[in-house]
Amino acid sequence: QVVNRLFPFPIRFFSGLFSLSFLQLFFINSSQLAFIFTSSKKNYREEMMSSKNLFKWLLNFTLCGLFLTTFFLDLTGVNWHQWLGLMVGILALFHLLNHWKWVKAVSQKFFQSTSGVVRMNYLLDAGLALGIGILILTGLAISTWFRLSGNEFAVLSNLHKLTSVVTLGILLVKLVLHWKSITKAVWQLLN
Prior knowledge:
Strand content: under 5%
Largest sheet: none
Number of helices: 10
């Protein structure tokens, strides 16, 4: 209970998240996840931001944090690196499905009536999606789960490392470009 008083939101969030079945996580919408974010102050989260936006920001922060943690293999070790990488892949897929309407709308109008800022965001997101996809595929291939060896292992390992650096670069560019909205969201979450 002491931990629950010190960190009420993270404990409620993660205990609520892990009580969901795997399939429920992919087939319910953000507003249905609002129960995860409830606290003793009923309207606190609603005043801060809507539960849908809160869920999206928390997903973004979690994805970014997991990717950055996974990037440092010395910090996590191989076993945690593999599991966290798989988690990043699953959350990235969920993130993509959650923003699918935007992806579809921008894809249809990319060369027509779309602003330069939207095109830049789209290209950065496409680069991140491609990078994470390559990282997941090469990561699984070189993982201890499949025990690939020989020349294929060396080639895929080098591709995995190169892709991780490029994807980190794209992520950093995205963070810099969205810095104002990120700091605003963090400020709203903390106050």
